[in-house]
Amino acid sequence: MNVEIRTETADDAAAVRNVNELAFGGDAEARLVEMLRAAHKAVISLVALHQNRLVGHILFSPITIASSPAHFRGLGLGPLAVLPEFQSKGIGSSLMLHGLEACRRNSYDLVVVLGHTKYYPRFGFLRAKDYGLDNEYKAEDTFMVLELQSGALQKLKGLVKYSPEFHLAAANGIDRQHTLVCVWRRNSRLVPVDPCRHCPGNFDCRIAVLLCCISDREICRLSIWQAVG
Ligand SMILES: CC(C)(COP(=O)(O)OP(=O)(O)OC[C@H]1O[C@@H](n2cnc3c(N)ncnc32)[C@H](O)[C@@H]1OP(=O)(O)O)[C@@H](O)C(=O)NCCC(=O)NCCS
Fold it and tell me: Whose CA is nearest to atom 9 of ligand 1?
């Protein structure tokens, strides 16, 4: 299939949203893309075009690794999406190869991914845990790494963290106008949470825990708190 791969432009935003929504069957990934873009963290974002139609998208954003040297530059891969009717035609692979090449060209040290164990190893990804890299999601085999600069994996060990936008997009507490909200679901009641420096650390809701984890850096600076149903 004849497919052109190029860098995403501002005009692609709506079509990129469409591809992610249809590929994943929901809008969490589309929202994530928009949040990363708004935060200038979509450092490599490529699209696939077939007959001028945008049919695929891949994005890389910065990660951190505990106790990495100051000059370390790593990326997280994701989301990667291809329109359902265009899947299994090599478009995902093409986006992967072009994307990884762009990462190498831009001198990144490594790329991590949380994804399918039957897909990413074909591009050289290895089980990250075997190289002393942990993740925040307790993923085992599905958390993988690809070394881009020779020797990088030997020097880097510890907890890999994606940008806070990953947690925010996964939570339901963000409305379509991008108003940041935080909810504390306890005994089936939704309660607005005070700035999380008061976090008692015993939230029983995954959403609240995730938001609470990043609140010191991001959310507490915002004044808009509301409960959502
Ligand atoms: C995953 C995805 C991006 C792959 O893109 P694609 O264009 O279909 O992939 P390619 O044509 O390059 O490769 C097709 C191969 O990938 C495999 N593949 C596709 N989706 C897969 C999945 N979810 N798990 C494992 N393998 C998968 C196919 O079985 C096929 O294998 P084969 O080459 O042995 O026949 C695409 O299927 C997609 O958008 N899926 C929904 C969103 C998603 O799951 N994204 C990845 C999140 S980790």
Answer: 92
Q: What's this model's pTM, rounded to 2 decimal places?
A: 0.80
Interval 104-162: pLDDT, tens: 999 999 999 999 999 999 999 999 999 999 999 889 999 999 999 999 999 889 999 99
- Whether the CB-CB separation of 59 and 12 falls below 8 Å is answered with no
Q: Does ligand 1 lie within 6 Å of residue 157's CB atom?
A: no
C-alpha span between 94 and 123 (Å, rounded): 11
Kindly state if the Cβ of 93 falls inside 6 Å of ligand 1: yes
**Residue 123 Cβ < 6 Å to ligand 1:** no
**CA angle centred on 39, ends 34 and 45, rounded to 5°:** 60
- Using an 8 Å Cβ cutoff, are 55 and 94 in contact? no
Q: What angle do CA 29, 30, 33 make, to 5 degrees?
A: 85
Domains of the chain, each with CATH number or no CATH: 4-161 (3.40.630.30), 171-221 (no CATH)
